[in-house]
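Possible regression after last week's pipeline update?

I re-ran a chain I had predicted before the update to compare outputs. Posting the input and the new output here so someone can diff against the archived version. Not blocking, just want to make sure nothing changed silently.
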Amino acid sequence: MGFEQITTVPIKLVYMPDPYELVETVIDEIGKSLKNIQFEKAPIPIFGDEADTTHFTQYIAKDPKVSALVVLGGDGTNRLVARYSRKIPLFSISAGTNNVFADNIEPTICGMALGYFINGWVKKDQVLERKKVLRIFQENAEKGIALVDVVLLDKKEIGARAVWDSSLVKFVVVTQTDSMKTGLSAIVDRVIKISSQDHYGGYVFPSRSGRMVSVAIAPGLVQKIGIGEWGYLQENQSLPINHTEGIIALDGERELPVRSGENWTVLLDKNGPVKANIKQIMEQVR
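New output (post-update):
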């Protein structure tokens, strides 16, 4: 808890319970030494899957007194949180398979930044950023969001694991790219550089006859993929998914089946979750 040595006011830390009671184990070990922190377990059901994250975020979002939400996970976990976090600032620490949205940062530094933020030692309008999202629609009904990438896969079955085979990718659209990160967004990174602050996204239609590039799909996994048509996606612009059938993957996780004759679109929206710029917080405090 990096912010224990920084906070000057009592803090209530509401945590998401888990089947193994990991947080309780930590509290038993060091809880008594953290004088300014009151721990409270959220009264939500536990399933040991992504439903826990969803239920916890929905529970927290109802409390107007919540100052920040710490997220440990990858793009998929942050996506679940972002769908219900409203305007609560996210302090996201990368701890997943794909970690483009989350910060690759030492947790102690995140704890210090959180303490500075909660105590008002920084100007919030200078350290909080509204992030872009991709909204997925079937006809006029929204079916989900993605923080980093939406991918159409040449598959029929839905699975929960990350995508490892780039040859299945028929279409990929992103909010941002990062040459230092792995994942399917790395396909677009080979032709377009897009920061999280840019007011546009980008897309690529892979083609076996296109220019072949090497892409880091996952840690230790580099594959060749051909670049076909590519371009930019502006804010509030929609792209149709004009394919017969497949599976739409949101931030690397397969979720939505697309069937022949259905009309699907992807929209770039600037009104995504609010995320704390941890580096900016640490640089402001002297």
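Follow-up from reviewer: compared with the archived run. The domain at 133-269 is CATH 2.60.200.30 (Tumour Suppressor Smad4). Marking as no regression found.
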